[in-house]
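Illustration: COBW domain-containing protein 6.
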Amino acid sequence: MMEDDDVPQLVEADDAAPVVDEETAQQEIEEKKAKAVPVTILTGYLGAGKTTLLNYILTENHGLKIAVILNEFGEGSAVEKSMSIGQDGAMYEEWLELRNGCLCCSVKDVGVKAIENMMKKKGLFDYVVLETTGLADPGPIASMFWLDDALCSDVKLDGIVTVIDSKYGLKQLGEERSDGSLNEAVRQVALADRIVLNKVDLAKSQELAELKASIQAINSTALIVETNYSKVDLSFVLGIDAYDADERLEDLKAQAVTSTPHLDSSVRTVTIALPGCVDEEEAERWIQDLLWEQQLDDKPCGAEVLRMKGVLSIRGSDNRHILQAVRELYDKTETTEWGDAERVNRLVFIGRNLPEEDLRASFAKLVSSE
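Result:
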């Protein structure tokens, strides 16, 4: 047995071990990403119509094999009763295969165990829908799928879909918390990539117009569909690639416009566009100061950024750099060439107390024509 102070013996490298060049390694990574199972996070207040949407996914003959992870069941759920029962009478978590080929799973935790169970069935489905509790903030859940290096080769975040009750949505968005924090409805809208405005037949036209105005004031980048009984084209909620670094994010000008708060939440969308180039390290520090310290130019700015995305023109690089952020977590990916197109830094912020002019002036200090 070796003593603590003994020097470990060196082991010679195996000359026969294969050497993978950088290009081959990158190609293998891209191939794994292409095979990754897309995960859609479904959120919304209780009663908004999430269960109705899930029932549609689980029962319609749409030709897709979709796994649905339910992280909370109600009492007496028919699906829950059909789950397997152990020898001691206790229910255990297991996948349930439905008639249209979809799968359903009940879990109390959307963490590692749920993901492990999901990956065991990876070859059996095309998409995964993860339903959150009505009061859940989708931000931490999205970050878990989006940035966890240990999982990125098997699953990828496809997008966040929020279901809103047309009759009560305006009231839910306007609810105030005693501690001054944002309520869950506002957070769910702010982080959404797609919004299903459900039960439109129960709302008056003026109520519906005010609700849509409030949603767009909070998040002008999310696409909205109006429906009853949560009936939507599945392409609206699945396969949207909201977090992929592709051309979908390269022209944010048409996707987002600066808005003014429609409710007391003071959450809104701010867009800035500045032609020119920025130094990569300086841009990284600027992003970190804003997201982590809520600072601009080393001074507190009070901005609470919930979602951020954009395109950066990095000095010395011929390619666009796509930026994505959820709360304090962010990712930057090099993508297509600028070519003859005008090089414009375009950033979209969704959050509370966003100082538009200060954001623009501060970032402008990083931009040069070179």
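Reading the tokens back as a structure: Residues 22-35 form the longest helix (14 residues).
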